[in-house]
């Protein structure tokens, strides 16, 4: 019987209460450790398609008669379109239609940043559409722009009211602390730069709108478009079978989607709107900059008694103020914590979620601060972390927490310190640093899956989710194959089309495996139950003695051994259909992911050059379904983290607000030559309270601690405290000078004391 | 429109395309060879890499009418052992840069069948992968012969 309950849902650190219908009892978890299919490395099912260049991305779609769109963007950081005239543009060759402010969602009269979309033109070719932009006559009224987040905070220009948090008595605890360390940490704006830019192709077929889009959330796009166009959601079909990366920037529909839909409606032709790489860098979302003024107070034995933080998120014109203080509140046991967070609304390009938004930034500040405390107390940083281990999330028990196990597994990497430091010469200094990680990643309801077993014994998993390149198809196929008892190569996963399969959640917030995986398992179990019932009747045995293993129906006594296709073969065109749903998360528990990374670096103290030599990562995300894909997630996260730490920085002209780094030459992402040795380990124990899988998500955790681990390794190598990302040579040399001055002052004090 | 003749994956092709058409556009839009991806369209990322007479070239900044040599795209390398090596090593995530990676790697192993890790890093540094499959790519190329 269907039961209606209230439950909590979390996405990217934001919580909401939802209604949920539960139909089935949860399945028992599988015991820990590798199973027949789950827990064993599986190469990607769609790997050959992608590697051979056969996978069709949104960018590869060419519909007959398709038009191309170019977007007119604001040249001012803040301006209003008083009048716009398309007459000259519409007269140009190939131009078929134009939209001004207010004619499609996302095209606004008020432009809040350089690059804000205000109008769109569709033409036979993209070159024609671009040329037409120059012929649009716009009467701009320039408005006052605020580009400095400090000014926004001082003037109280916020995206939302300041968020204040306090537990215990911070002031008193700080006053009573033996040691206090303070620091100001800054992180820069970094860009997602997915290889496939934001884009959509829209086509009307009767009163149905087909939207082909590079997205992380086909159902979200469907809902947004239905709402904007005031049409029934089931008249919007959203398709994304392959997409070229998202990292959080493609969770919603953008102006490109709405403009393509409206231009397609007006012209009666399919319309593509694809951002160029330069638009992608200027206007498609970013991880916002932060300024973090942090304080820690501790007793001389290393017990942390007070944490304080003032966080400024330089959000930009739109986006949300992420929980930058999250790690400070959650990572350590500390009775007295006080934080305040300001979301500064400034006239810069919009913030969008980027792989563990807020926690990447907040962990950099916090974990550097904690290491500076360890240095001041002359304590081993790993021991300090063990000493202040949080057994609960401010009183709420964790569904599972394997951070202590991560520390134990990381010990051997940490123990390389003497060996690594000994490599130091007169200019290149070597050192080892660590940082811990906490994040969400438990997923949640709702999500659904169907299974379809044919009389040939082959299985299709049908669920309208999307595979953004994390290996979703493979993991879902493994879960289904394991539950159903069939070889992995018999299972296909059908996804990426809102008209083909039930609702599944977004591919973000490390939620894919923990949200959809249990639904797939339940759908496979439903099909298996039916097959066993059929087998029991056909072979005149009790259901309880029957099982399916390796695609063969077997009896407990070993007397029956019938291939699945033999049993189901009699059914002809009939199919076995299973359905499954994601149940609720455990009530009264905090579901989190954990990890620690140990970085080894080399620093040239003459030039300030920093090289990351090795990163060892140990994460606890519950049960690992596919160790091969899991390792790739960890490596990819660390490599992006290395980029954030050393080379990536979106630069803005402070006078005009124009993005200066709009190419992949000026915005410097890591290449293969920049990659350190990466070692990857997992605790790999199921979370016994979380779903039938006990698995959490892994997309985001690996990027969380990387920057702090690198900064802490730099301190170990040189004694310098870097406080800013990226750690440019300028920042490195500044930190070295500061460390030198501190050492000189200390030497003078020592002399004076004598 | 000016006609141009070129050899793509061993086949002679004649195409009408406006002067100024990039090779990437020609392959994708005129010949339907969409395995070659355009990610930056200005020669910075390597996603559009093809071979011309065996040498890796950025097709997004190569004018189609200036091509003087045989063009090999990912579609012409689909039976190359590197394909399987990339899948085995999990050297693919979103896959958007991957065809370009394979085309670059194929040129490398043709010239140097047993490249060292350093040689791989040097040769492949022009192919950006935002998902960060680099360690897997290195492994795939090191073990491309199985």
Model description:
The complex is a heterodimer of chains A (754) and B (146). Chain A has 19 helices and 30 strands. Chain A is α+β, with helices and mostly antiparallel strands and 754 residues long. In chain A, the strands form 8 sheets. Chain A has a 7-stranded mixed beta sheet with strand order 5-7-3-14-11-12-13. Chain A has a 5-stranded mixed beta sheet with strand order 9-17-16-15-10, with helices on both faces. Chain A has a 4-stranded mixed beta sheet with strand order 20-28-29-30, sandwiched between helices. The longest helix of chain A has 28 residues, at 512-539. The relative contact order of chain A is 0.13. The model of chain A has no long low-confidence stretch (mean pLDDT 97). Chain B has 5 helices and 5 strands, in the order E-E-H-E-E-E-H-H-H-H. In chain B, the strands form 2 sheets. Chain B has a 3-stranded antiparallel beta sheet with strand order 4-3-5, covered by helices on one side. Chain B has a two-stranded antiparallel sheet with strand order 1-2. Chain B starts with a strand and ends with a helix. Classes of the chains: A alpha+beta (754), B alpha+beta (146). Chains A and B meet through helix 1 and helix 17 of A and helix 2, helix 3, helix 4 and helix 5 of B.
């Amino acid at each position: 019987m269907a039961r209606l309950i209230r439950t909590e849902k979390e996405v990217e650190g934001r919580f909401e209460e939802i209604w949920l219908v539960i139909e089935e009892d949860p399945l028992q978890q599988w015991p820990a450790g590798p199973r027949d299919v789950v827990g064993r490395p599986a190469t990607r099912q769609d790997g050959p398609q992608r590697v051979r260049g056969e996978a069709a991305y949104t960018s590869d779609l060419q519909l007959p008669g398709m038009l191309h769109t170019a977007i007119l963007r604001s040249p001012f950081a803040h301006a209003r379109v008083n009048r716009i005239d398309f007459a000259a543009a519409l007269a140009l060759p190939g131009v078929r239609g134009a939209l001004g402010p207010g004619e499609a969602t996302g095209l606004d009269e008020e432009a809040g940043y350089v690059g804000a979309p205000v109008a769109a033109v569709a033409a036979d070719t993209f070159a024609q559409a671009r040329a037409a932009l120059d012929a649009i006559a716009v009467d701009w009224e320039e408005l006052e722009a605020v580009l400095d987040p400090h000014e926004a905070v001082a003037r109280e220009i916020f995206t939302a009211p300041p968020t204040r948090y306090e537990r215990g008595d911070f002031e008193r605890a700080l006053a009573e602390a033996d040691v206090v360390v303070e620091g100001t940490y800054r992180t820069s704006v970094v860009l997602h730069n997915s290889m496939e830019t934001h884009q959509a192709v829209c086509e009307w077929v009767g009163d149905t709108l087909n939207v082909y889009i590079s997205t992380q959330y086909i159902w979200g796009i469907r809902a947004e478009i239905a709402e904007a166009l005031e049409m029934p959601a089931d008249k919007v079909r959203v398709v994304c079978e392959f997409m070229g990366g998202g990292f959080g920037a493609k969770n919603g529909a953008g102006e490109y989607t709405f403009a393509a839909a409206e231009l397609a409606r007006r012209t009666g032709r399919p319309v593509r709107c694809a951002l160029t790489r330069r638009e992608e860098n200027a206007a498609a979302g970013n991880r916002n900059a932060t300024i973090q003024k942090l304080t820690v107070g501790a007793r001389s034995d290393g017990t942390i008694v007070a944490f304080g933080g003032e966080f400024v998120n330089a959000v930009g014109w739109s986006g949300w103020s992420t929980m930058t203080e999250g790690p400070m509140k959650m990572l350590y046991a500390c009775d007295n914590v006080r934080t305040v967070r300001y979301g500064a609304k400034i006239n810069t390009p919009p913030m969008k979620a980027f792989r563990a938004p807020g926690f990447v930034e907040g962990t950099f500040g916090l974990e550097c601060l904690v290491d500076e405390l360890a240095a001041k107390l002359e304590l081993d940083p790993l021991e300090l972390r063990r000493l202040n281990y949080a057994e609960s999330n401010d009183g709420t028990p964790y569904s599972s927490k394997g951070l202590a196990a991560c520390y134990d597994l990381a010990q051997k990497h940490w123990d390389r310190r003497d060996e690594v430091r000994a490599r130091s010469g007169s200019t290149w200094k070597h050192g080892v640093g660590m940082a811990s990680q906490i994040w969400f990643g438990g997923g949640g309801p709702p999500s659904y899956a169907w299974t379809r077993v044919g009389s040939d014994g082959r299985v299709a998993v049908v669920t309208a989710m999307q595979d953004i390149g994390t290996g979703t198809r493979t993991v879902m196929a493994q879960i289904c194959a394991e539950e159903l008892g069939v070889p992995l190569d018999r299972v296909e996963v059908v996804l990426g089309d809102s008209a083909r399969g039930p609702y599944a959640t977004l591919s973000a917030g490390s939620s894919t495996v923990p949200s959809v995986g249990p639904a797939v398992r339940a759908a496979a179990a439903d099909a298996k139950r039916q097959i066993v019932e059929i087998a029991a009747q056909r072979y005149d045995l009790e259901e309880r003695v029957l099982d399916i293993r390796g695609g063969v129906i077997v009896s407990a006594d070993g007397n029956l051994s019938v291939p699945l296709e033999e049993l189901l073969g009699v059914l002809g065109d009939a199919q076995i259909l299973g359905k499954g749903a994601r149940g609720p998360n455990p009530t009264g528990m905090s579901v989190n992911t954990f990890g620690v990374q140990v970085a080894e670096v080399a620093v040239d103290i003459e030039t300030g050059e920093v090289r990351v030599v090795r990163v060892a990562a140990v994460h606890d995300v519950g049960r690992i379904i596919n160790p091969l894909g899991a390792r790739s997630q960890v490596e990819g996260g660390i490599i992006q983290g290395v980029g954030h730490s050393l080379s990536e920085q979106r630069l803005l002209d402070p006078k005009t607000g124009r993005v200066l780094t709009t190419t992949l030459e000026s915005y410097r992402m890591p290449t293969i030559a920049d990659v350190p040795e990466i070692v990857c380990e997992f605790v790999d124990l199921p979370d016994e309270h979380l779903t039938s899988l006990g698995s959490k998500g892994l997309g985001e955790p690996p990027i969380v601690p990387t920057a702090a681990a690198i900064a802490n390794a730099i301190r170990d190598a040189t004694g310098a405290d870097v406080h800013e990302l990226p750690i440019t040579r300028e920042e490195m040399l500044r930190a070295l000078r500061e460390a030198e001055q501190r050492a000189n002052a200390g030497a003078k004090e020592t002399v004076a004391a004598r | 429109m000016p006609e141009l003749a070129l050899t793509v994956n061993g086949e002679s092709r004649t195409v009408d395309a406006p002067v100024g058409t990039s090779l990437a556009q020609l392959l994708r839009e005129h010949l339907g060879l969409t395995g070659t991806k355009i990610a930056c369209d200005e020669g910075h990322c390597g996603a559009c890499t093809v071979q011309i007479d065996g040498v890796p070239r950025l097709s997004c900044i190569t004018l189609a009418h200036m091509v003087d040599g045989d063009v090999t795209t990912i579609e012409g390398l689909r039976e190359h052992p590197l394909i399987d090596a990339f899948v085995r090593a999990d050297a693919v995530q979103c896959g958007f840069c991957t065809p370009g990676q394979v085309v670059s790697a194929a040129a490398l192993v043709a010239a140097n069948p047993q490249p060292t890790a350093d040689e791989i890093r040097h040769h492949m540094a022009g192919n950006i992968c935002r998902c960060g499959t680099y360690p897997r790519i290195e492994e795939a190329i090191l073990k491309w012969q199985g």
